[in-house]
């Protein structure tokens, strides 16, 4: 398959990219500052230009989504708007605009996260965004067939515990290799409207 990989240079994106490439897929990598194509998918109009530059693809995989982390009392409307635009609207637009550019039986795989179901201190904007992405996947799936859409919803990565572990006390971590396999399941499998929880 020819796969458009968003966020390919990040921690998760690199692991997913290596796994998909190792399975024989052709990748078109996308990032703000690195990759085959350079686009900020939160910028208005960037997604249309991205699809025009990428050409036909069989799957779209997103591993990127920016959200602010702050104590609840410090979060403003602008922070929540940034979380919505950075993780929700950007991925919704990947699907919405992508329908005209992908193969008839293509798939979209989006990124959610554990905070949709297990909140942490400073994470209410992220919880909102993750929950919205995962709800969108379930709803969109019933309308875009035969194209498919799923989300991967991991907890904190084992490889990131040194940096982020203190924010996730008692959360069992997940290896990046296992998260990458959830992306394989979404891309190569037949499921749609699924949230793969790790």
Structural account:
GO terms for molecular function: oxidoreductase activity. This is Short chain dehydrogenase. With 198 residues, the chain is an alpha/beta fold. Strands 3-2-1-4-5-6-7 form a seven-stranded parallel β-sheet, sandwiched between helices. The two termini are 25 Å apart. The longest helix is centred in the middle third of the chain and has 22 residues, at 77-98. It is built from six helices and seven strands, in the order E-H-E-E-H-E-H-E-H-E-H-H-E. It is 39% helix and 19% strand. Helix 3 runs parallel beside helix 4. It has a single domain (2-197), classed as Rossmann fold. It has helices at residues 11-22, 46-54, 77-98, 124-141, 161-164, 176-188; strands at residues 2-6, 26-31, 37-38, 57-62, 102-111, 148-153, 195-197.
Structure described in brief:
By secondary structure, the chain is α/β, with parallel strands linked by helices. The protein has helices spanning about 10-20, 45-55, 75-100, 125-140, 160-165, 175-190, and strands at about 1-5, 25-30, 35-40, 55-60, 100-110, 150-155, 195.
Oligomer: single chain
**Mean pLDDT score:** 97
CATH fold description: Rossmann fold
Give me the strand/helix succession.
Answer: EHEEHEHEHEHHE
Look at the structure and name the CATH superfamily: NAD(P)-binding Rossmann-like Domain
Shape: globular
CATH class group: Alpha Beta
Q: Which terms summarize this structure?
A:
7-stranded parallel beta sheet; single chain; 198 residues; globular
